[in-house]
């Protein structure tokens, strides 16, 4: 009876161990050895280039031997061995359960062109790798990307050009061209008899075939067409693509040519015509010698300009004289200077008033002699009242007294 519970307990432990061990094995997926070369792989190169073909392999920790072979025309795969130009290497540093076998052509040739594959014995065979060797043929795999970039650039450039035309180009688009005569209203031409006079008639034809004629208004209020003669010449010249000018030239104009003129423009259908404004030609009966005087309408503007210039110069000169010229003008003595009282004590070398040398004698000026000499009177105690002239220029430096007669004589000689 005691062995039965022990037996049941042992069976329970065994079943538990089997369940746990089985679940543990199922929790880790199984590792399968295989060759992981992608289907349809292509390698391109030119002769004498270096080319490397790689074969990734999943070894799952097993020791494997990777071989390379080339498919022959007999549909058999010939094994490739390492030579001077062909090198076979393996590298297992990328992952723990993987390695990469490399087939390197050091200087590939046209004979190396063909299908290659890597094998793991007879158990695992990889997909074929197409090695294409072309003589001078370039790899054009980048061409689609180039087309995409060029298309994007063209799209951006086209959009930019249309944007610029929208904001700038269309604003400056030329307006519609209108045919017409461009003679200014009120045009007047003046000339003297026997002179040469040319009248212009600018015309806008806009590329159409036009005919320009000239005519003169008669006293009967009718327009008479002018034809070319010995004294009258009609010519025309093109100024631009859509414009021309017709010239009516009087070689020797006369009094009879005085009057009103106009030019007429007719297009190709003749029925459409354009008439200019009237041109007034005035011919004066001056002799040829006086004809050279010409038009003096500019004389009024010239006179105004000269007057303004003269006024500016006058104001400038007066201003300069007020600041510089008048400062140099000698000043007139004031009445106080003429009434100045000078004592004998103020002058060191004064010989006295009229020869008197006593102190505190006063010499009073009587009259001024043109700012050169001053007439003084010596009021002595005896009242003699002698008069003398003193030099004003030597008043503070060297004073010298003269009698009235001597002072006047010296003053007149100084003049």
From TrEMBL:
It comes from the Eukaryota. InterPro entries: BTLA (IPR039257), Ig-like_dom (IPR007110), Ig-like_dom_sf (IPR036179), Ig-like_fold (IPR013783), Ig_sub (IPR003599). One of its GO terms (cellular component) is plasma membrane. Residues 29-134, 175-276 form the Ig-like domain. The chain crosses the membrane at residues 7-24, 145-165, 301-326. One of its GO terms (biological process) is immune response-regulating cell surface receptor signaling pathway. One of its GO terms (molecular function) is signaling receptor activity. Keywords: Membrane, Transmembrane, Transmembrane helix. PANTHER family: B- AND T-LYMPHOCYTE ATTENUATOR. This is B-and T-lymphocyte attenuator. It comes from Collichthys lucidus.
